[in-house]
Amino acid sequence: MTRIAIIGGGISGLAAAFALEEHRRAGVLEYTLYESSPQLGGVLRTEHIHDCIVEAGPDSFISEKPWAADLCRALGLGDQLIGSNDADRKTYILVRGQLIPIPDGLMFMVPTKILPTGLSPLFSWTTKLRMARELLHPPRPLGADESVASLVERHYGSEMVDRLADPLLSGVYGGEANSLSVRAVLPRFAEMERTHGSLGRAMLAGRKKMQRPANNPTPPLFTSLKKGMQQLVETIVPRLNQASLLTNTPVQSIQPRTGGWSVSAGLKSDHFNAIILALPARAAAHVLSVCNPELSTELAAIGYSSSITVGLGYDRDVRQSLPPGFGFLVPRNEGKRLLAATFVHNKFPHRAPDDRALLRCFFAGSNAENIWQLSDDAIIAIVRNELQQILRLRAAPLFARVYKWKSAMAQYGVGHLERLDRIERLRPQLPGLALAGNGFRGIGIPDCVRSGQEAAKQVLSLL
């Protein structure tokens, strides 16, 4: 009987297990999933507080990437998928203490409508003139990898980096524009520069090609589940073989053996034909440090940042006092510790009763590390103080919860794709090994699902 070990019980490992489950039921193989913590699902955690759905980890996933939604449908959760309230989508940037809405037609950081951007107080006239000149930017052949900040500054100047690119990337990656790889994080931008030169002209050309007929409306930007993202975990786990799921079981080491692998967890060692490492890259590096130091070194070089989310519930008066829209982003030069806040009750239906406001505040990277050792009460005090400064919000919350995620967000630094190429060249030295997780080709839930499914296919093809 073919035996496969899955090390890591986050959504990547669970997706791999689900992909193997039908083969197990057919009697083709067995699998064992090892998870070091007491709970499966990794960062997908949801609490229900005061009739509010409070996400400890990610609150949704990008609708454009299909793998998470497809998995939900395969699990029978298709009728539980909900889209973001994009009709009310408005995001603000804090500029000199004032919340300025991102103007209409600004796609990520590329202006596609002249008038709203030209009239917006978000940018200085110097930046607006650069936006106009950017339309004449000549094509540029692909060279060495560079940071997102480098590419954006070349097209639009440093103000665009500080006020838009960096806050947007902080909210997604918990990283900084001056260190994240443009090819790994925004590959479309590098390709648009190569083919069109101007990002603005490339975006407009792409919009024309993608115009939808009136009976085929644009899908929502974000997708979630009615009962919260933990609903995905709570649905997938019962569909797996329960005897194959080992929680509170950290793996100490793995070793290649004749015809397979030996996995040591606790006082027990077991033999498998193949292994899926569905771990953060640095944890995978530790497990592989003895059997392939070179591969371990490459994996260990993939950076991670920590994050802290704070969920706060308020009453009807606060809900009515908040500005419309999805929330706000805070540039680093504003001198705040908060990086972002989401008005969850506006962003998604079913998240809070009509007489409640639900806010989700976010720290990441050095901002999170600088307050990591503080108590929950001290972190909540920081959040309340900065919300008072930004929103004039003085009311005490009905509830507040702090969630800390240590080294959970992969950082795709400059040269990341080249590192992945080296990893792929080294991996065949360990036959039967597959890698999955957020450290490689996407940090979002859809990318993690895809990586787990592809790892399952990979070990099946080897066997």
Care to give the gist of this entry?
This protein is α+β, with helices and mostly antiparallel strands.
Could you characterize the architecture of this molecule?
The protein is an alpha+beta fold and 463 residues long. The protein has three domains: 2-41 and 233-302 and 412-462, 3-Layer(bba) Sandwich (FAD/NAD(P)-binding domain), CATH 3.50.50; 105-209, protoporphyrinogen ix oxidase, domain 3 (Orthogonal Bundle), CATH 1.10.3110.10; 305-411, Alpha-Beta Complex (Polyamine Oxidase, Chain A, domain 2), CATH 3.90.660. Helices cover 37% and strands 24% of the residues. The protein has helices at 11-25, 67-74, 114-119, 125-134, 148-156, 158-173, 182-185, 187-195, 199-209, 230-236, 281-287, 293-300, 316-321, 344-347, 365-369, 376-391, 416-426, 445-462; strands spanning 2-7, 29-34, 46-49, 52-55, 61-62, 81-83, 91-95, 98-101, 106-107, 110-111, 222-225, 245-246, 251-257, 260-265, 268-272, 274-277, 303-314, 327-329, 340-343, 357-364, 399-411, 433-435. The strands form six sheets. A seven-stranded mixed beta sheet has the order 8-7-18-19-20-17-21. It has a five-stranded parallel beta sheet with strand order 12-2-1-16-22, covered by helices on one side. Strands 5-11-6 form a three-stranded antiparallel beta sheet, with helices on one face. The N and C termini lie close together (11 Å). The mean pLDDT is 94.
